[in-house]
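Following up on my earlier thread - several people asked me to post the actual chain instead of describing it. Fair enough. Here it is, all 341 residues.
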Amino acid sequence: MVKIFTVGVIGAGRIGKIHIENLVRKIPNINLKIVADIKFNDELKQWAGEIGIPKLTSDASEIINDPKIDIIVICSSTDTHAKFIQDSAKANKHIFCEKPIDTDIKRIKETLAVVREEGVKLMLGYNRRFDRNFMRCHEVIVSGQIGEPQIVKITSRDPAPPAIDYIKGSGGIFFDMTIHDWDMARFQVGSDVEEVYATGGVLIDPEIGKAGDIDTAVAVLKFKNGAMGIIDNTRQAVYGYDQRVEVFGSKGCVIADNEATNTVRTYTAECTNIDKIPYFFMERYLDSYSNELEYFFECLRENKEPRPNGEDGMQNVLVALTAQKALEENRPVKISELSNT
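Reply from S.P.:
Thanks for posting it. Predicted structure:
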């Protein structure tokens, strides 16, 4: 008999709503019992009623302390992740948490120690690993078809900058944007990063610079297995959401390119046209959010360790911190300079 998991969700913001709708509509053999969010208002209550959420609360402890709940999905603000993970682990709940665990390495290590001590499973929401194109790249690499990975190139460009208020509290481009690319690079190469050099500037909006951030960046990575990586980011690509990965190996190369919104081409005497690429992450990565949750529950049923796990999350934050130090000091910085602190 297939086990039916009882689930609670903490956080019903933009990402939280995506996960909640997937849990209700796409994930089999689960029972979503309760959702907690600090914004307990009429709009949220109406939305919850429309999709069939049985109970809403503004108190996350109702979920954590409920003995009938097996799994907690954490989609709250970053500054709450570590506490909710620790509290959930101590309550013997398995955990799916949106990235990152925290931006402080000491706090992350403390949190992972609690998870290990309590013996629960933790998966982090680096959803791009579950995009069908990037998954296929990974399968090709693992199969050995392109030999040993030697160079990974990642292009990750947003269509428009976020609000300045968001940037002020996001931790900077290496945390709120490139964090996915650090994970993708590690995922494809199959090795942790050893050294980072990063450069960047304010080429789009001076207000971003006044907020203490950059809007355009390039990072060069060295991996422990000898491979190298190049990542380019911008907060404004006027043509859409530009997401590409290339991995060059000793026997060949694998490339995941952008997908147009459809496969139609128009041919005339003047030109050949195809339609634009998706505008933003909701259009490009929507399926990856349900894919990652399906995988998480599969791991729980088969008692397997899910990936990306807490260690992956810590490595990604270490790379982000190292990139920031490299940018500020204009030099290559080894991960060990921060990991040993």
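The chain has 13 helices and 15 strands. That should answer part of your original question.
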